[in-house]
Amino acid sequence: MSDLMDPRVAAEIKDEVRAFYDAVGWREVSEGLYQNARFEDLRPVSREYIHRCHMRVRDHLPGEGRFLLDAGSGPIQYPEYLTYSEGHTYRVCLDISMRALVEARQRLGDHGLYVVGDIAHLPFKDDCMQGVVSLHTVHHLPPEEHRRAFEEFYRVVAPGSSVAVVYHWGEAGFLNRLSRRVASWAYWLRRKVARLRGRGSANHQQRGTGRATTLTFTHDHRWAERELGHLPGFQIRVWRSVGVYFLRAVIHPHLGGQLLLRILYRLETLVPGFFGRHGMYPLIVYRKPAKRLAEA
Ligand SMILES: C[S@@+](CC[C@H](N)C(=O)[O-])C[C@H]1O[C@@H](n2cnc3c(N)ncnc32)[C@H](O)[C@@H]1O
Q1: Ligand 1, atom 11, residue with closest C-alpha
Q2: Whose CA is nearest to atom 4 of ligand 1?
Q3: For 52-69, what is the mean pLDDT?
Q4: How far is the CA of 134 from the centre of ligand 1 (A)?
Q5: Which of 121, 147, 17 is nearest to 9 (CA)?
């Protein structure tokens, strides 16, 4: 796909996304919890699975270096995120939302450097970051700019260092569609059971599909293979193959939920490429080759 979108349309999309995060997404709704966290499953039964998925990102980042770029950092909302830059001197938090950076500063203090900017036009010189991570952000760009963002991450990462991006396939992917179907059946069954017990309908607010959200645009794994396959070391792995809708519908503490998630995690780890391509959230990784001595 080409980079030919009308720049005014692209700017309008980004303005809307920024306004959303400034006013809504990064508003604290309770102690340490943002409105954005309603799109996560924070129940104890899912905690271990979610934690392990967060830690997958760390396996693909350099353990040390001067700068780790967090592109679309948000406020560094989950404790696991802090571990990604433990071995770096600075975590460079770049975000389009000033509010995100003000919140990030409260968590990182002097370990952070804070830059308001756009991931599709990074204000950094080539080869300056000893690692790049970007979580749940590229899909907020207009679709014509996704490839550009991935290439910007590559441009700024130092030779020998890697990039890890959590992306979203939207409605694409057969495991993704299957898990949505299973979740719909589970909700249907819960409504039936609730009605039989005379308790009205099951609680749908738990689904996390409320309208308080902003613009997102997605591509499927074929697009990624075609448009990003040239990046050295390019791999599509799994970050998490199921979304919150599925987790809240199907995973319950009294119905073996934790065991089911352990099995799912194990399967994802055994065949990360398969779950990455066909599930919901891939972890896309690539690496800039180290310079040979003669070039250095
Ligand atoms: C879904 S949140 C994810 C935040 C964080 N990475 C996380 O996983 O919690 C998306 C973040 O990307 C930021 N963002 C959206 N579009 C952006 C852009 N074009 N450039 C930089 N940041 C952007 C938003 O302001 C928001 O903080």
Answers
A1: 72
A2: 74
A3: 98
A4: 8
A5: 17
